[in-house]
Amino acid sequence: MSSIPVLVLCDFQNDIMGFVPPEKKESVIKGASKLLSFAREKKIPVVHVGVRFRKGHPEVSKRNKFLSLVSSRGSILVEGTPGSEQVAELKPIEGEFSVTKRRVGAQFNTDLTTILSALNATHLILGGVSTSGVILSTVRWAADADYEITVVREAVTDGDDVAHQALLEHIFPSQANVVSVDDLIKSMS
């Protein structure tokens, strides 16, 4: 049985990218754009995942250490605001899926699993910000759900370089293939 790939791009949103240093931002958008162009050319289904909250972040519990920090920043990632939208270079086009999440992982309480099931997906190709956040959570879930997983090196970044490198070089390889965008394109052409 052949693999049925789906590209899942996570959290490439204006508010989130505003925290990424300019050189990393430019690099990860370039890598993700190349990956997205390839997927579109090859008719690989694309799912854009973004984290969004209602005004005032009522979905965020004070017990959630990370998201409480996010909500303390005011109107960040509020639905309907420019900051919650995908960056211009990676905006969804007609026929691509958009998934809104309220937590770090791409699948937690979202319809991502329903979409992947409807597509008969067996292979998730991941890109997103951050490596130690949404990508880590999604790799762990996808491995438990028996997906083949590919993390594309140039399409992920993190504010913590040590965590980023440790995940790509030591943690992810036990559950996912970590490849360059060029190697992925070569292997799927």
What does this structure look like?
The structure is a single chain. The protein is α/β, with parallel strands linked by helices. The protein has a six-stranded parallel beta sheet. Helix 3 links the parallel strand 2 (46-51) and strand 3. The protein is built from seven helices and six strands; from the N terminus they run E-H-H-E-H-E-H-E-H-E-H-E-H. It is globular, with a radius of gyration of 16 Å.
Strand and helix map with partners:
Layout (H helix, E strand, L loop, with lengths): L4 E6 L3 H4 L4 H20 L4 E6 L13 H7 L25 E5 L10 H7 L4 E7 L1 H14 L3 E10 L3 H11 L5 E3 L1 H8 L1
Parallel strand pairs: 1-2, 1-4, 2-3, 4-5, 5-6
Instruction: Tell me the β content.
Output: 15-25%
Share of helix, binned: 25-40%
Uncertain ranges: none
The N- and C-terminal alpha carbons lie at a distance of 18 Å
The ordered string of helix (H) and strand (E) elements is: EHHEHEHEHEHEH
**Mind summarizing the main beta sheet?**
6 strands, parallel
Count of alpha/pi helices: 7
Looking at CATH, which topology would you report?
Rossmann fold
Decide which structural class fits the backbone.
alpha/beta
Q: Looking across the biggest beta sheet, what order are the strands in?
A: 3-2-1-4-5-6
CATH superfamily, please?
Isochorismatase-like
Instruction: Kindly give the count of domains.
Output: 1
Number of strands: 6
Q: What is the radius of gyration?
A: 16 Å
- CATH class group: Alpha Beta
Could you tell me the mean pLDDT?
94
Oligomeric state, counting identical vs distinct chains: single chain
Tertiary shape: globular
